[in-house]
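Sample entry (449 residues):
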Amino acid sequence: MFSKVINNLRHDPPKMLVLGFAVIIVIGAFLLTLPAATRSGTGLSWIDALFTATSATCVTGLVVVDTGSTFTLFGQLVILSLIQVGGLGFMTFATFFAMLIRRKISLKERLLLRESLNQISIEGIVRLARMVIIFTAIIELAGALLLAVRFAFDMPLGQALYFGLFHSISNFNNAGFDILGHFNSLTIYVEDPIVNLVIPALIILGGIGFIVMAEMYEYRRHKRRVSLHTKVVLTTSAWLIIAGTVAIFALEYNNPKTLQPLSMLGKFFGSFYQSVAARTDGSNTISIGDMRHSSLFFMIILMFIGASPGSTGGGIKTTTFATLLGAVWAQVKGKEDVIFFRQRILPHMIYKSLTVTVSSLSIVIASSMILSITEQNVDFLTILFESTSAFGTVGLSMGLTPHLTDVGRIVITLTMFAGRVGPLTIAFALAQRKQKEYYRFPKGKIMIG
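Predicted structure, serialized as tokens:
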């Protein structure tokens, strides 16, 4: 019976992907319960360990205990490993090790790898996995060195190198975990040019998707044509970053608890950093809990949109958002087709975008509804912010996460897991389950609007 279930899972890549993430989370949670994982020598409780392991594997960054002061070096390395595996996908690592020992990648493994990297076909998928590993190593090492140089002014060189590596891996994978020793620790670097340029660069590179990075590399090297996907991702991402920066700058300019005390350059850095981090990463350089409600609501929208397909980030993805906007604009203009860069978007892609968005919205609504029951005396904006942050695997918090009830922690844990594997799995399940219709029902009309 058990072998039959496993065999069925092997023929269903989306389910196998979900199972793989679940197994990694359970293993990580077990390791964090060990006495060697915490400075206190007692290990985490199962609920806190499961929450932390899920947050790391799903590259979210929400924490119920402070990472720097709670965990030993062993515990921090467990979290860092979960972030790396969760960000790149366990099948990417499995493929990498298979290539190291010169083992042939089977068709089933290629199908799983396709799911893990959020690709449409298996053509060139092993080569893409190789490029993912190479790009990741280069970018993370470069970020680690630059951050280590900055941190070396505040701490011993050895510690600066480790801190630089941890924060480079954490932010490239859009996790947002930090080990500087206290909550919201990056706020001390709100006006620092190195931190405010290096970390957002890591977040952006991790958030645009590996297929985009691969295409840009091939374009520079061989002048190959850039795909429509890459054009939409880069354009949408750029506009969202600009819109977020301008909105946060304008709304928080006179807020004495966030941007007002800063210099003009500091105000720009604070706005830019939070605009980038709001869509994919859980780190912050200004106090999230002290921001105005208008800014927080705008950030909820950015968190829900999230990063791009095939990236280390979550959310409904930039391409989904762009497709829906294109469909709305086409309807307003009275056009039948959605056109991007002189190319027509197929109707089934619009339906898929709508399905992912509605499904994602349902998850956020359900999570917020349950939390509004379990978390007493907490205003709804805080609950909505926390739920959206968990679903979008963002990790920003208004301060509610450490004070969640046990039920609330379970709800956020499930929301993070659903946010990481849910929309991706839905999209591919739809792609794989197309059925030919042998008849069509007569047309019907209903009133809309």
